[in-house]
Fold:
Amino acid sequence: MAAAARSALLNHLRVHVQAVPRNPSYTLSFNAIRRRFLSEEVRGSFLDKSEVTDRVISVVKNFQKVDPSKVSPNAHFQNDLGLDSLDAVEIVMALEEEFGFEIPDNEADKINSISLAVDFIASHPQAK
Amino acid sequence: MASTTASIVPTRSEVLWLFRSLLRTARQFTDYNIREYTKCRTVDGFRQNRTLTDRDALASAFSYGKAQLEIAKRQAIVYSLYAPKVKSIMDIKP
Structure:
């Protein structure tokens, strides 16, 4: 008796179901976050070269012994800025602090001009 | 050759390695004063000795620097265990 009533009721009962459109902005932002995590956490991202150049130049200009007017994107540490090898080491250390990553010794030894520093940092995924 | 002091003259790259290692170790100190002192002491020491040419003087300066590096590494660890609770005002970025 109860079972018959239940089946009769279920036969006539209809629940109106409508698909809720998915919010496109939510999907987009979720994907953006996922992409961001994948790219920056795993692969790292490369900095824009002109931004790197500006930041490198400002670091070098702030170095005590450097005459700021002589600093140009092509300046050589020894020949143009009158620095010695100890100063070059100090500048590379300052660049490490500015860009938040460690430059290995063998690479650091090769950096003796602003353009070389910019090339290395711009090609390094961990620089930020 | 006939040198009985067995002084090994450091190469240019070894000196730069020592300089860089000392500066890297200096960065690890948590206390601003000690960190800056170690940096300045390193730079001043290498500047002072940059004109050395005597083999024995070079070798002794290099071995002194290496001993200081070991001390600095050890002290960086010890100081990290007793880091100051309050940051130096110099460490607070505006």
Observations:
- Residues 55-81 of chain B form the longest helix (27 residues).
